[in-house]
Each structure stands twice: as structure tokens, then as C-alpha cells.
Amino acid sequence: MAEQLAVVVQNEARARKGSEDGLHDIRVALRRTRSLAMTFRKLDPDGLDRLDRRIAKLCDRMGAARDLDVWIELLRGMIKAGGLADVTVGQRRAVLALLRRERTRLAAEALTCRAFRRVKQMIRDCSRRRLPVRRKTVPPPETFAARRMLVVRELIAERHRRVGNYSKGPAHDLRRAGRRLRYLSEFFAPRLGPECVRAGHWITKAQAALGKVHDCDSALELSRDLPTGRARSAVRQALKHRRRDQLIKFKSAWRHYARQQLQKAWQKRLEVAAGQA
Q1: Residue 134 lies in a domain
Q2: What is the pLDDT of residue 133?
Q3: Backbone phi and psi for residue 113, each to the nearest 5 degrees, phi listed first
């Protein structure tokens, strides 16, 4: 947690000034902290549950700035496609500048609010103190990680069964479940064996592709409010093609992840590490 807090602090200043990468790195670090909180939840259920809820709300607030990033990308696409012909170059620049300023304002508000300061302090406290433990012996971190991976692994399988034709909602739910395993793998897979490393590798690729599918879905929704005409049609068509290509990449990565031989070996490895075998 201390490492993730360091990432947050390191990127605060540039994120407040409008850096997309800075805000992205902060959100990723906070999500990784949530992953750690849920992995070791049994050590301090009340405290870590509270931290998880507060980070979730904070990340939602930061998402407003991300929505404007999508709008900026859409308008740039419209301009490139020859749209907005009735709008002068100066007016286009003014609109883009306004959106960037608003995005920076929203990001700065999220990063200076009381909730953000409180979350940082909670992470700092968790990383410094000994969590309350009622048992004399505590399992190694790998045991907690393996148990959490088994739970998330089942969640991913369940959501994949319900994903259907990959419409926005079910695909987004599957992506979020995959993200949980991705972060767990980044932290613990090397300690849990080669099967865990391979499974983590393929779920990371699958989740990344679904993330781009989700971006396309969000952009397609927002594009309905763009001025009608040839340019909007071109932008929407490009988004649909991009979505299709990313979905192909997801399905390819998923086939590797879901191979029966890998899944069986991985499950066995996790059950042993979790103390279930």
C-alpha cells in the first residue's frame, strides 16, 4: 500500500495541471490499493471495507474528468473527418480549450477534496500500523492472494457466461472482474507459480482489449449528441470498426486464458497455496 500511495503523491501535481497520464496513474494506484484491501480483508474487515468503499467513491468522482477526455477525442475525430465545417478554426480551438479547462477543473476538484485527503491518510495509516489479528499465527501473503484469486476466478467465469453478445453492460462487468485478477497477478503471480503468471498474462491482455471496447461504447453514446452529417457518420463508423477489432483481440486472448489445461493446473496450484488441497 505504501508503494501505491507513493504513486498517488508523485502524480498529484501534474494531474491537477491537466495531465491525463497523471490522473490515470493515480486511479490505477487507487484501484490496486482496493485490490490489496480486499485480498487481506480478513485481517481487518471493518477498516479495509471502509477503505475500499471510500476509494470506490473517489474513483467515481475522478471519472467525470475521464468522460471529458472522451469528448475531446470525439471532437478531434469530427474535425479530422471534415466535420464542423460551419465552425471556424478559432471556434474549434476555443471549444477544445474550454473542454480541457473543464477537465482540468474537475480533476483538480477531485484531487483537492476532503475525501481524497482522507483516503490518502487511511492508506498511510494502513501501511504503517499492524493490523489487528486475533489469531496467533497469520498465513503468508501468498495464502491470502490464492484465496482471493480463486474467488475472482469464479467471478470472471460467471460473468463470461452471462456476457452474451458483448453489449456494453455485461462486457463492462466482465472487464471489471478481469481488472481485479490483473492487479492480483501483478502483485502475486510470480510467487504462485508459472500457471498463475500465464493466466495473469492472458487476462491482462483480455481486460485491456475490453477496456478499449468500453471506451468505444462510451464514445458511441456521446457521439449521438454531435451535429448530424457525414462527419458524425464517419466518426461513428470508425468507432464501430475499432470496437470490432478490439473485440477480436479480446476473444483471442480469452481462448488462451480459458484453455482447459491451463485452468486445471492453475486451479490446483491456487488450491494448494490457499490450503484447500
Answers
A1: no
A2: 53
A3: -75, 165
